[in-house]
Specification:
Elements (H helix, E strand, L loop, with lengths): L6 E4 L7 E7 L3 H6 L2 E2 L13 E6 L5 E11 L10 E7 L4 H11 L3 E2 L4 H8 L5 H12 L3 H11 L2 H25 L10 H20 L1 H9 L1 E6 L6 H9 L17 E7 L2 E7 L9 H16 L2 E7 L17 E7 L12 E2 L8 H12 L14 H22 L3 H19 L5 H8 L7
Parallel strand pairs: 1-7, 8-10, 8-11, 11-12, 12-13
Antiparallel strand pairs: 1-2, 2-6, 3-4, 4-5, 5-6, 9-10
This protein binds guanosine-5'-triphosphate (GTP) and magnesium ion (MG).
Length: 444
């Protein structure tokens, strides 16, 4: 066990019907046992079974007359340590008082993600699984949730460990050639080693290709609607959200500030934004709104340039701005006027016509550089950087082995092994752990 202190935190969001206070560490049972009193003492309750009791402060003042307690002795617990969870009544106060009482028994308040960090340090999960816990909690779509679930089940970790194993085997072979150069041992054929490493490189490249999906699902891309006043931008936002979020009127210049809302289209979590109409003139407020619209559009992952079918398209060109993402040209109000333009997607927010075509275009733009989506796993930026490092090192190692430069090959193979080890946490620096777990919420 890695920790000698006992940590506690409220693990549920405030305001629900039930609050869970979680305690982990060597004194979890002892400290909770001072506060929780059932028919039997806490230590005598059956492990991993909820038991009803009452919760009081260290001084015996009642906190909750009906509090369920469950003890999960290590190592078969989330953290691998002795864990106790107290389920008390919800609302703002019970859990707060329970936490105060636990601090008085000598527990320490857990840092964000500290339970999961202990689980990792105690070998209950690898680093990709620990990261998946945060992804699962933060998932913005079902696809993101399922991806996090597969990572939590260990799918990414397994693939990395298998690569780590292959490269380590070659490294062992190369090292023994260095250690016993005179002996004519039963050496493995260099060609065979090079083939093995080539397969590793292919697999590394495959994993790197999943990066886009990882970013899309974890990040929530930004989709910004811009266009001339009155084109129907706010109407489109409301239609996509299925509720009247933004004010719609027939007065041009209705929307002043940007309006943002989360949205899922075809499994893709998006941050949708409506903006002020773009035109010359307008008052100070409208001008400020247009500046904001431009900033948002230029920074967006995806932009919809929405124009009005009742006006000539030539009068509504896409502004010559510095867009970072791709721009979809969409013509609205096709119920009022026919449009014949091969470049623009025709829709009518009023009748709902053309919406599927718009969804298709959004989906296509998001997955632009990928043919098939929904891989088993999808790597995040941290993984991708290490995969690239490993890939480069393996490529160099193959060349060295080809030249029979065993010493140099060993250096490159060690670099590759270390990089792969840092993905799963087999070898990892404390500052990396700090960066990963600080993103967690308290109580997880
Ligand atoms: N006929 C028809 N009218 C529409 C359609 N979409 C929006 N409108 C109408 O167009 C007018 C302007 O709609 P808004 O959504 O406020 O337009 P906007 O682009 O947000 O306008 P600003 O905020 O002023 O830039 C409203 O009267 C809407 O009812 C459509 O598909 N067909
Ligand atoms: Mg508007």
């Amino acid at each position: 066990m890695v920790a000698d202190d006992t940590i506690c935190a409220i693990s549920t969001a405030l305001g629900g019907a039930v609050s869970i206070v979680r305690v982990s560490g060597p004194d979890a049972e002892k400290n909770c046992g001072r506060l929780w009193h059932g028919r039997a003492s806490l230590g005598e309750t059956r492990a991993r079974e909820l038991t009803l009791g009452r919760l009081s402060s260290v001084d015996g003042e009642l906190i909750d007359p009906q509090c369920l307690a469950v003890r999960m002795p290590g190592p078969h617990s989330y953290t691998g340590e002795d864990v106790v969870e107290l389920q008390c009544h919800g609302g703002a106060l019970c859990a707060r008082l329970a936490l105060d009482a636990l601090l008085k028994t000598g527990c320490r308040l857990a840092e964000p993600g500290e339970f999961t960090k202990r689980a990792f340090l105690n070998g209950r999960m690898d680093l990709t699984q620990a990261e998946a816990v945060a992804d699962l909690i933060g998932a913005g779509s079902e696809a993101a949730l399922r991806l996090a679930g597969r990572h939590l089940a260990g799918r990414l970790g397994e693939r990395i460990r298998s690569l780590h194993g292959t490269v380590s085997d070659v490294l062992a072979e190369v090292t023994s050639r260095l250690d016993f150069p005179e002996e004519e041992l039963d050496w493995r054929d260099p060609k065979d080693m090079m083939d093995g490493l080539a397969a590793v490189r292919t697999e590394l490249a495959e994993l790197l290709r999943t990066r886009r999906e990882g970013e899309v699902l974890r990040g929530g891309l930004s989709l910004v609607i811009i266009g001339p006043p009155n084109a129907g931008k706010s109407s489109l936002l409301n239609h996509l959200l299925g509720r009247n979020r933004a004010i719609v009127t027939d007065i041009p210049g209705t929307t002043r500030d940007t309006i943002e809302a989360p949205l899922v289209i075809r499994g893709i979590p998006l941050r949708l934004m409506d903006t002020a109409g773009i035109r010359d003139g307008g008052d100070v407020v409208e001008q400020a709104g247009m500046t904001r619209a431009r900033e948002c559009a230029e920074a967006a992952d995806l932009v919809i340039w929405l124009v009005d079918a009742t006006r000539p398209l030539s009068e509504q060109p896409v502004p010559a701005w510095d867009f970072r993402g791709s721009v979809l040209r969409v013509v609205n109000k096709t119920d009022l006027a026919e449009v014949a333009s091969p470049e623009a997607i025709p829709i009518s927010v009023k009748t709902g016509d053309g919406m599927e075509g718009l969804y298709d275009a959004i989906e296509k733009a998001v997955w632009a550089d990928r043919t098939e989506k929904h891989d088993d796993v999808a790597v995040a930026a941290r993984h991708a950087a290490l995969l690239e490092e490993a890939g480069d090192a393996v490529r160099r190692a193959v060349e060295r082995i080809g030249e029979e430069s065993w010493e140099l090959a060993a250096v490159d193979l060690r670099t590759a092994v270390a990089a792969l080890g840092r993905i799963t946490g087999q070898s990892v620096e404390p500052d990396v752990l700090g960066a990963i777990f600080s993103k967690f919420c308290i109580g997880k």
